[in-house]
Amino acid sequence: MWLPKRRPKAAAGRSLATVGAVPPLDASLERCRIAETLLASSARLLNVRSELDVIKGVCEAMCSVSGHICLAWTWFGPATTQVIRPQVFAGRAQDYAAGITIDRNLVTAMGPAYRTLQGKTPEAFRVARWSPFGPWREVAAQHGVRSVLAVPLESTVADMKGLFVIYADHERYFEEVGEGLFVALGALFSSVLNNSAERAALEQIVNQDALTGLLNRRALPIVESRIARKSLFDPRSFVLVIDLDHFKEINDTHGHAVGDEVLRRAASTMRALLRRDDAVMRWGGEEFLVCLADVSEEDALKVAEKLRLSIQNMREPTPVTASIGIAEVMPQRALADTIEIADQALFEAKQSGRNRVCLRA
Fold first, then answer.
1. pLDDT for 239
2. Which among 231, 245, 243, 244 is positioned nearest to 328, based on CA atoms?
3. 199/90 Cα distance (integer angstroms)
4. Which of the four, 185, 224, 264, 293, has the lowest number of CB atoms within 10 Å?
5. pTM for the complete prediction?
6. Burial of 204 (C-beta count, 10 Å sphere; 0-12/13-18/19+)
7. Residue 66 · residue 79 · CB < 8 Å
8. For residue 224, what pLDDT band results from cuts at 50, 70 and 90?
9. Could you state, in order of their start, the residue ranges of all structural domains in the chain?
10. Contact 167/139 with Cβ under 8 angstroms?
11. What is the CATH number assigned to the segment(s) 215-359?
12. What angle do CA 216, 293, 52 make, to 5 degrees?
């Protein structure tokens, strides 16, 4: 993925017909331009709501004022990731970043991305048309990239790390301009992304049921917003309210530890049957709520019946059945009102003998 820094200058400096002439590097002027631009735009950028928009704005400002930075991108995620795809990028080579995937393998493990994730000190890497890493050959030929620096983004969230990667068209760009400015930007990006990651982790804790790992009812506004977005393209959605039959008897007969295990297994069974984008929540006690988007009424009934049968087929730690009420989500009706209608359908299912599915318009 990389070539040693001490390649012969004649080879590293070969001109390419596909790339225009590179202007001479005035390192002092370059540092001043970037620093002044970032300071001037910082107030405006920090007023942007999205953390990723802040980072994108910084990268765009830096690339626009620099005469040599072709591309800047960031990635933030699990430190053990096997695949890195740029999440935010800017610069004249951003089309390259939009399409790149860096798989962890023997070649890429020696390059700046994975070396930086492993805690290695940032160092500039030479890029050339004969690089063993195919995408580097492409970016060298098409955009004149000659040097790459990856700066680590540190995280206070467990097992999360990030990268800030800069591509320049001068082979000694980072040695002459210095790495300090980019390391400082990395510290800023770390702070911004940590705020986002910490908030997401906190929201997960707040919105997650401790016993089953499902969403809890505090997550309803998030689910309602997701359904509203999906309804622009997938107009039909349904709500299922699922209640485990005679659950109090399970607790009274077998104890609360067995009751808790029944709830956990029911939750796991339902989650395994549903699509990734289907929201499933522990609504309270032995009641669960499922939101199905982009389904017909017939399919919603089929899903409900599969859920009912899967719970009925649970034999451990003790047999249990479920009653299910269904209602369709309507554009002009609050989700809470739809849940109430589904709850009425659930009541009908219980009144009709339990362990069945009822739909109410």
1. 95
2. 231
3. 26
4. 264
5. 0.54
6. exposed
7. no
8. confident
9. 9-204, 215-359
10. yes
11. 3.30.70.270
12. 70
Pick the most confident of 107-111, 220-224, 262-266.
262-266
- Tens digit of each residue's pLDDT (9 = 90 or more) over 321-355: 999 999 999 878 888 999 999 999 999 999 999 99
CA distance 57 to 60: 5
Q: What is the CA radius of gyration of the chain?
A: 28
Active site residues: 286
Q: For the segment 64-108, what is each residue's pLDDT rounded down to a tens digit?
A: 999 899 999 999 888 899 999 999 999 999 999 999 999 999 888
- Consecutive H or E run containing 87: none
Provide the β-strand partners of residue 216: 282
CATH 3.30.450.40 fits 9-204, yes or no: yes
CA 169 – CA 71 distance, rounded (Å): 10
Q: Measuring CA to CA, how many Å separate 251 from each of 254, 258, 277, 286, 338? A: 5, 7, 32, 11, 30
Burial 302-333 (b: 16+ CB within 10 A, else e): ebbeebbeebeebeebeebbbbbbbbbbeeee
Q: Which two tokens stand for residue 102?
A: 């860096």
The predicted-structure confidence for 25-60, as pLDDT tens digits, reads as follows: 888 888 888 888 777 766 565 555 567 788 888 899
Q: Which helix (H) or strand (E) holds 174?
A: helix 173-177
Instruction: Please tell me the distance from the alpha carbon of residue 258 to that of residue 316, in angstroms, as a whole number.
Output: 9
- Which helix (DSSP H) or strand (DSSP E) does residue 215 occupy? strand 215-216
